[in-house]
Input
Amino acid sequence: MDLFITLVICLSCLILLSLWNGSYAKGKLPPGPTPLPIVGNILQLNIKNISKSISMLAKDYGPVFTVYFGMKPTVVLHGYKAIKEALIDQGKEFSGRASFPVLDKIAQGYGVIYSNGETWKQTRHFCLMVLRNMGMGKKTIEDRIQEEALCLVEALKKTNASPCDPTFLLGCVPCNVISSIIFQNRFDYSDQKFQALMKCFNEIFENASTSWIQLYNAFPFLRVFPGSHNVIFKNYALQRSFILEKVKEHQESLDINNPRDFIDYFLIKMEEEKHNKPSEFTMDNLVATIRDMFSAGTETTSTTMRYGLLLLLKHPEISAKVQEEINHVVSKNRSPCMQDRSRMPYMDAVVHEIQRYIDLFPTGLSHAATQDIRFREYLIPKGTAILTDLNSVLYNDKEFPNPEKFDPGHFLDESGNFKRSDYFMAFSAGKRVCVGEGLACMELFLILTTILQNFTLKPLVDPKDIDTTPVHKGFGAVPPFCELCFIPV
Output
């Protein structure tokens, strides 16, 4: 047995040495903590809160360093200057998407979030074009959000000011908005298929944020064991089935001269390119792209709103100040609109502060070097994973004094006017910035304003006893469960 253990250790060291030498043969990676054989630096990282571990390591190794997740080297960028220099100043070179094993198995290189190369470039360009055609940034999208927000108000009124968990209802609004773009229709909140779809999004986000998934991504062989990755795979299979059913319906009623929604536009593009081999516009890419748009356009926005309500419960003085501004600018006779935002600096600041404070994706989605990159005094080989510590930007104590405190004043100047900040990277930055940023910003402002226009939020416990610490902080920050009462005003 002793001989066997010795052989395993020696083999592990040889593998690590080979990988180490391979990395340095291609380029000079930034220094970092010494990795152990096979496991790399995983034992030195808190997998329940990677961004916290990154911040601790940055104190010793500076704003650019290397860590090993298992046997894979990852260059970490910590702080605004390093992240801006990479994602914005050298955006093209850092625009790749690194491997994320639990989702790579599902995406298989397709879609707009986890793809690379021509697939990513063409799919992203196509998505932006269609979203503009469908009204992104125009009154038509705003109208859809306003209509859906009113449906939410009616649903919340039916709770009769009794304690309720708003998770499902908050998810319905952005999900129906993106549904109207992709499928040309909204779903009734009582629709069982719709409820099942919403449950899928929620379970995927929560399970992807667990510490188990951090381990899975470092050691993909763990797929043979039971774990939360299987919940993700099961839910993605259900989503795929739902999407394929909708695509089939569209194929049967398609009019190439009159596209109704995103699926029609994509099917028409597929027909135009059917003789162009290889084409990026395939059925697999259509399904993956729809899935990406739904996940980016539903769960992230609804989770932000859910977390936002929790913070407003914790700080009733902020809620009261917001409602005072709403009453002054909008009153109760009409729905809030985007034109109101310029006259509602406090509400605008609250929405931005919610996103800053919750730090929904602490390290974002990992990037990858698209070519050998000379970055500062280092040479980063093509394909190297790049981790951007967005938490270090959103919690920068010079830009946002006392960043651990929820304070809308972080986005207000001395005169009470809204103050923009280059450090606001809630949607990442550069060429991989979230495609749906504009839509999400509209939804957050209009929906939260509509809720506070119609309801006073009442907690079930004393506000000082409300805990806003996320239950998971891995891939994303998952807010704790919370019930509240929506009191009509």
Q: What stands out?
A: The radius of gyration is 23 Å.
